[in-house]
Specification:
By secondary structure, this protein is mostly helical. It contains ten helices and two strands. Helix 6 runs parallel beside helix 10.
Amino acid sequence: MFSKDTEMSHAKMLAVGAMCIALAFMLNQVSIYRMPLGGSVTPMSMLFVVLAGYWLGPIFGIIAGVSMGLLNMSTGFINYHPMQVALDYLLAPGALGLAGFFRTWKFGLKIGYVVGVFGRFVCVFLSGLVFFYMYAPEGQHAAIYSAVYNLSYIAPEMLVTLVIISLPTMKHAINVVTKNVVPPAVYEKMTAVNAGSISAGARIATGAVIGAIGGIAFVFAGHLRRIEELTITQVVTDAQIFYDPPRADRIYRLIERNTEHIFAFQTAGVIFLAIAVALLVSTLCNER
Protein backbone atom coordinates (compact mmCIF):
# COMPACT_ATOMS: atom_id res chain seq x y z
CA MET A 1 0.00 0.00 0.00
CA PHE A 2 1.09 3.62 -0.51
CA SER A 3 1.88 5.82 2.46
CA LYS A 4 -0.23 8.96 2.43
CA ASP A 5 2.75 11.20 3.28
CA THR A 6 5.46 9.75 1.07
CA GLU A 7 3.74 8.24 -1.96
CA MET A 8 1.11 9.12 -4.52
CA SER A 9 -1.89 6.99 -5.27
CA HIS A 10 -1.87 4.93 -8.45
CA ALA A 11 -4.66 7.07 -9.87
CA LYS A 12 -2.79 10.32 -9.36
CA MET A 13 0.40 8.86 -10.84
CA LEU A 14 -1.46 7.69 -13.92
CA ALA A 15 -3.21 11.04 -14.31
CA VAL A 16 -0.03 13.11 -13.93
CA GLY A 17 1.99 10.75 -16.15
CA ALA A 18 -0.68 10.74 -18.86
CA MET A 19 -0.84 14.54 -18.77
CA CYS A 20 2.94 14.87 -19.15
CA ILE A 21 3.11 12.32 -21.98
CA ALA A 22 0.22 13.95 -23.84
CA LEU A 23 1.70 17.45 -23.57
CA ALA A 24 5.16 16.23 -24.56
CA PHE A 25 3.79 14.35 -27.57
CA MET A 26 1.63 17.25 -28.77
CA LEU A 27 4.45 19.78 -28.45
CA ASN A 28 6.84 17.38 -30.19
CA GLN A 29 4.59 17.52 -33.28
CA VAL A 30 5.16 21.28 -33.51
CA SER A 31 8.57 21.92 -35.05
CA ILE A 32 10.20 25.33 -34.97
CA TYR A 33 12.67 23.86 -37.44
CA ARG A 34 13.22 20.26 -38.46
CA MET A 35 16.49 18.55 -39.37
CA PRO A 36 16.67 16.54 -42.63
CA LEU A 37 17.56 13.19 -41.00
CA GLY A 38 15.35 13.49 -37.93
CA GLY A 39 15.32 15.70 -34.88
CA SER A 40 13.79 19.14 -34.48
CA VAL A 41 13.56 22.13 -32.18
CA THR A 42 10.17 22.02 -30.47
CA PRO A 43 8.36 24.35 -28.03
CA MET A 44 9.73 22.68 -24.86
CA SER A 45 8.45 19.16 -25.49
CA MET A 46 11.39 17.68 -23.55
CA LEU A 47 10.43 19.67 -20.45
CA PHE A 48 7.25 17.70 -19.81
CA VAL A 49 9.04 14.35 -19.82
CA VAL A 50 11.54 15.89 -17.39
CA LEU A 51 8.64 17.11 -15.25
CA ALA A 52 7.24 13.58 -15.19
CA GLY A 53 10.50 12.44 -13.61
CA TYR A 54 10.63 15.50 -11.35
CA TRP A 55 7.12 14.90 -10.03
CA LEU A 56 6.84 11.10 -10.12
CA GLY A 57 10.45 9.97 -9.70
CA PRO A 58 13.02 8.57 -12.16
CA ILE A 59 11.35 5.22 -12.88
CA PHE A 60 8.06 6.78 -13.91
CA GLY A 61 9.91 9.55 -15.72
CA ILE A 62 11.78 7.01 -17.83
CA ILE A 63 8.53 5.16 -18.52
CA ALA A 64 6.94 8.45 -19.61
CA GLY A 65 9.85 9.15 -21.96
CA VAL A 66 9.70 5.71 -23.54
CA SER A 67 5.93 6.07 -23.93
CA MET A 68 6.40 9.37 -25.74
CA GLY A 69 8.98 7.72 -27.99
CA LEU A 70 6.54 4.97 -28.90
CA LEU A 71 3.90 7.59 -29.73
CA ASN A 72 6.40 9.41 -31.94
CA MET A 73 7.12 6.16 -33.76
CA SER A 74 3.43 5.84 -34.56
CA THR A 75 3.62 9.06 -36.58
CA GLY A 76 6.51 7.81 -38.72
CA PHE A 77 10.16 7.08 -38.05
CA ILE A 78 13.50 6.38 -39.75
CA ASN A 79 14.50 2.71 -39.43
CA TYR A 80 18.01 1.61 -40.36
CA HIS A 81 18.54 -0.99 -37.64
CA PRO A 82 16.65 -2.20 -34.54
CA MET A 83 19.34 -0.76 -32.27
CA GLN A 84 19.08 2.60 -34.05
CA VAL A 85 15.33 2.61 -33.40
CA ALA A 86 15.94 1.75 -29.74
CA LEU A 87 18.52 4.54 -29.34
CA ASP A 88 16.52 7.26 -31.13
CA TYR A 89 12.96 6.44 -30.10
CA LEU A 90 13.18 4.57 -26.78
CA LEU A 91 16.42 5.20 -24.92
CA ALA A 92 16.83 8.86 -25.96
CA PRO A 93 13.41 10.09 -24.75
CA GLY A 94 13.58 7.69 -21.80
CA ALA A 95 16.85 9.32 -20.68
CA LEU A 96 14.93 12.54 -20.02
CA GLY A 97 13.31 10.79 -17.07
CA LEU A 98 16.70 10.66 -15.33
CA ALA A 99 15.79 14.13 -14.07
CA GLY A 100 13.85 12.37 -11.30
CA PHE A 101 17.09 11.45 -9.53
CA PHE A 102 17.69 15.14 -8.80
CA ARG A 103 14.24 16.15 -7.56
CA THR A 104 15.46 16.75 -3.99
CA TRP A 105 18.68 18.53 -5.04
CA LYS A 106 19.14 22.28 -4.93
CA PHE A 107 18.03 23.56 -8.35
CA GLY A 108 16.86 19.99 -8.92
CA LEU A 109 14.61 20.79 -11.89
CA LYS A 110 17.32 22.66 -13.81
CA ILE A 111 20.05 20.15 -13.00
CA GLY A 112 17.73 17.25 -13.79
CA TYR A 113 16.72 18.88 -17.07
CA VAL A 114 20.34 19.32 -18.15
CA VAL A 115 21.24 15.75 -17.14
CA GLY A 116 18.18 14.33 -18.90
CA VAL A 117 18.88 16.29 -22.08
CA PHE A 118 22.53 15.23 -21.96
CA GLY A 119 21.40 11.60 -21.64
CA ARG A 120 19.22 12.07 -24.70
CA PHE A 121 22.13 13.65 -26.58
CA VAL A 122 24.41 10.70 -25.77
CA CYS A 123 21.85 8.27 -27.22
CA VAL A 124 21.25 10.18 -30.45
CA PHE A 125 24.99 10.90 -30.77
CA LEU A 126 25.75 7.17 -30.66
CA SER A 127 22.97 6.53 -33.17
CA GLY A 128 24.40 9.14 -35.53
CA LEU A 129 27.96 7.86 -35.08
CA VAL A 130 27.08 4.21 -35.77
CA PHE A 131 24.15 4.36 -38.18
CA PHE A 132 24.35 7.75 -39.96
CA TYR A 133 28.11 8.07 -40.43
CA MET A 134 27.75 7.78 -44.21
CA TYR A 135 26.16 11.24 -44.30
CA ALA A 136 29.25 12.88 -42.81
CA PRO A 137 30.84 15.32 -45.30
CA GLU A 138 34.16 14.47 -46.88
CA GLY A 139 36.99 15.30 -44.51
CA GLN A 140 34.73 15.49 -41.43
CA HIS A 141 34.96 12.79 -38.77
CA ALA A 142 31.71 10.94 -38.14
CA ALA A 143 31.87 11.79 -34.41
CA ILE A 144 32.11 15.53 -35.13
CA TYR A 145 29.31 15.29 -37.68
CA SER A 146 27.04 13.44 -35.24
CA ALA A 147 27.82 15.82 -32.36
CA VAL A 148 27.26 18.94 -34.45
CA TYR A 149 24.12 17.61 -36.12
CA ASN A 150 22.42 16.61 -32.87
CA LEU A 151 23.55 19.60 -30.84
CA SER A 152 22.21 21.93 -33.53
CA TYR A 153 18.62 21.09 -32.55
CA ILE A 154 19.00 19.87 -28.94
CA ALA A 155 21.09 22.78 -27.61
CA PRO A 156 18.81 25.66 -28.73
CA GLU A 157 15.71 24.05 -27.21
CA MET A 158 17.59 23.27 -23.99
CA LEU A 159 18.86 26.83 -23.63
CA VAL A 160 15.52 28.47 -24.33
CA THR A 161 13.76 26.11 -21.91
CA LEU A 162 16.28 26.79 -19.13
CA VAL A 163 15.74 30.51 -19.55
CA ILE A 164 11.94 30.15 -19.49
CA ILE A 165 11.78 27.91 -16.42
CA SER A 166 14.04 30.41 -14.63
CA LEU A 167 11.48 33.19 -15.04
CA PRO A 168 9.69 34.01 -11.75
CA THR A 169 6.21 33.44 -13.21
CA MET A 170 7.14 30.05 -14.64
CA LYS A 171 8.90 29.02 -11.43
CA HIS A 172 5.80 29.94 -9.44
CA ALA A 173 3.52 27.99 -11.79
CA ILE A 174 5.70 24.87 -11.60
CA ASN A 175 5.90 25.18 -7.82
CA VAL A 176 2.10 25.41 -7.50
CA VAL A 177 1.66 22.23 -9.56
CA THR A 178 4.48 20.52 -7.63
CA LYS A 179 2.81 21.32 -4.31
CA ASN A 180 -0.45 19.75 -5.48
CA VAL A 181 1.13 16.74 -7.19
CA VAL A 182 4.11 15.66 -5.09
CA PRO A 183 3.56 13.96 -1.70
CA PRO A 184 3.90 16.43 1.25
CA ALA A 185 7.04 14.80 2.67
CA VAL A 186 8.84 14.93 -0.69
CA TYR A 187 7.64 18.49 -1.35
CA GLU A 188 9.07 19.61 2.00
CA LYS A 189 12.47 18.17 1.04
CA MET A 190 12.31 19.85 -2.38
CA THR A 191 11.47 23.27 -0.91
CA ALA A 192 13.84 23.01 2.05
CA VAL A 193 16.86 22.28 -0.11
CA ASN A 194 16.09 25.29 -2.32
CA ALA A 195 15.66 27.71 0.58
CA GLY A 196 18.08 30.61 0.86
CA SER A 197 19.88 32.68 -1.72
CA ILE A 198 22.77 31.85 -4.03
CA SER A 199 26.18 33.01 -2.85
CA ALA A 200 28.21 35.44 -4.93
CA GLY A 201 30.94 32.84 -5.44
CA ALA A 202 28.43 30.31 -6.75
CA ARG A 203 27.04 32.88 -9.19
CA ILE A 204 30.48 33.79 -10.48
CA ALA A 205 31.48 30.12 -10.85
CA THR A 206 28.22 29.31 -12.65
CA GLY A 207 28.66 32.33 -14.92
CA ALA A 208 32.21 31.25 -15.73
CA VAL A 209 31.09 27.74 -16.69
CA ILE A 210 28.19 29.05 -18.79
CA GLY A 211 30.47 31.60 -20.46
CA ALA A 212 32.99 28.85 -21.26
CA ILE A 213 30.23 26.78 -22.87
CA GLY A 214 29.26 29.83 -24.93
CA GLY A 215 32.86 30.19 -26.04
CA ILE A 216 32.97 26.52 -27.05
CA ALA A 217 29.83 27.05 -29.14
CA PHE A 218 31.57 29.86 -31.01
CA VAL A 219 34.63 27.63 -31.54
CA PHE A 220 32.38 24.99 -33.12
CA ALA A 221 30.80 27.69 -35.29
CA GLY A 222 34.26 28.85 -36.39
CA HIS A 223 35.29 25.28 -37.21
CA LEU A 224 32.19 24.83 -39.36
CA ARG A 225 32.78 28.21 -41.00
CA ARG A 226 36.25 27.06 -42.09
CA ILE A 227 34.80 23.84 -43.50
CA GLU A 228 32.19 25.86 -45.37
CA GLU A 229 34.81 28.21 -46.84
CA LEU A 230 36.93 25.25 -48.00
CA THR A 231 33.86 23.65 -49.55
CA ILE A 232 32.88 26.83 -51.39
CA THR A 233 36.46 27.16 -52.65
CA GLN A 234 36.28 23.59 -53.92
CA VAL A 235 33.04 24.32 -55.77
CA VAL A 236 34.52 27.42 -57.39
CA THR A 237 37.81 25.86 -58.45
CA ASP A 238 36.79 22.29 -59.33
CA ALA A 239 35.07 22.32 -62.71
CA GLN A 240 34.67 18.52 -62.61
CA ILE A 241 31.96 18.91 -59.97
CA PHE A 242 29.54 20.18 -62.60
CA TYR A 243 29.99 16.93 -64.56
CA ASP A 244 29.19 14.83 -61.49
CA PRO A 245 25.64 15.77 -60.37
CA PRO A 246 25.50 13.42 -57.31
CA ARG A 247 28.76 14.84 -55.97
CA ALA A 248 27.61 18.42 -56.64
CA ASP A 249 24.36 17.69 -54.82
CA ARG A 250 26.25 16.34 -51.78
CA ILE A 251 28.45 19.43 -51.68
CA TYR A 252 25.54 21.85 -51.95
CA ARG A 253 23.69 19.97 -49.19
CA LEU A 254 26.86 20.16 -47.06
CA ILE A 255 26.99 23.95 -47.50
CA GLU A 256 23.30 24.23 -46.59
CA ARG A 257 23.68 22.05 -43.47
CA ASN A 258 26.78 23.88 -42.33
CA THR A 259 25.00 27.22 -42.67
CA GLU A 260 22.19 25.92 -40.44
CA HIS A 261 24.65 24.51 -37.91
CA ILE A 262 26.70 27.72 -37.82
CA PHE A 263 23.56 29.72 -37.09
CA ALA A 264 22.52 27.26 -34.34
CA PHE A 265 25.92 27.34 -32.60
CA GLN A 266 26.23 31.11 -32.86
CA THR A 267 22.74 31.49 -31.39
CA ALA A 268 23.63 29.09 -28.56
CA GLY A 269 26.87 30.99 -27.94
CA VAL A 270 25.07 34.33 -27.73
CA ILE A 271 22.46 32.95 -25.30
CA PHE A 272 25.08 31.32 -23.06
CA LEU A 273 27.26 34.44 -23.00
CA ALA A 274 24.20 36.63 -22.30
CA ILE A 275 23.28 34.43 -19.33
CA ALA A 276 26.88 34.56 -18.06
CA VAL A 277 26.95 38.37 -18.32
CA ALA A 278 23.56 38.60 -16.57
CA LEU A 279 24.85 36.46 -13.68
CA LEU A 280 27.98 38.59 -13.36
CA VAL A 281 26.01 41.87 -13.44
CA SER A 282 23.47 40.61 -10.88
CA THR A 283 26.32 39.53 -8.58
CA LEU A 284 28.03 42.92 -8.84
CA CYS A 285 24.74 44.73 -8.18
CA ASN A 286 23.96 42.63 -5.12
CA GLU A 287 27.42 43.14 -3.68
CA ARG A 288 27.00 46.92 -3.70
